[in-house]
Amino acid sequence: MQATRGVRLTPVPLAAAARGAVALAVPLLIGVLTGAVVPAVLAGIGALWGVGQDGSDPYRLRLRRLVRMGLAAACGLLAGGLALRSGHPVAVPGCLVAAALLGGAVSLRGPLASVAGMHLLLGATVGAGIPVPGPWWQPPLALLAGVALVTALSATPWLWRRHAIERDAVLAVYRAAAEALSAAGSAGAEAARRRLTAALDHAHRAMGRHLSRRVRSGTELSALRDAFDTALRLGEVTSALVWEGRVLPAYVRDVPLTLAARLLPSVSTPAQDGGDLR
Asked: Is residue 124 within 8 Å of 76, Cβ to Cβ?
């Protein structure tokens, strides 16, 4: 027990787990009920690859990653399937070599391209290794259907929670700052300061594409940017206070949550909820 004291467990991403369970089960269930088992398995493979690229990052970035991955995997599956159907002895090895070279070249262009390049090769490997009955266009469409299901489940909440992910990331900075100020002068101060740094890094990634855009004042995104700018300054001040190693008075520890309540209005104030917004 001594070794685990002070360790902060990462919460289970229940929403992503639920999306994965639904996305993997639905194609297979449809295949069993309709008798179209092979297309259902390919759709399940697409859903599996899509679940592997799902996450909790902003919806636009999530959507771009899933779309690129799905198109690359479908192209690879199509190329591998056509090579296998041709029956030529060098078609399959040639296709895999070409897919590996192209996937490697594409992967050098950045993280999103790396995902696409890897799944291009995976698709070609599956297409060239598993003979699928039916027309040549059916396997890539089945694969895309599985990816599309994951994409719909993952990105649809954007319609009514447009900037919720960015807002949660910024709010996490204020909560981490409050925790760090409360831990100042104690044995857990350094761990709390590291969590604050991690929260700042995550918020910067979530807000990244919005920081260079021009936005109208008075909008939700404008308020989020103001809250993020304040969070950056708050992080610097909090780190300096934690480094001093002195226990801070209650009115100082309450500052981050009070700021969060004013800059992110749906957050309750410390006076309303007893000072704990977690």
From this structure: yes
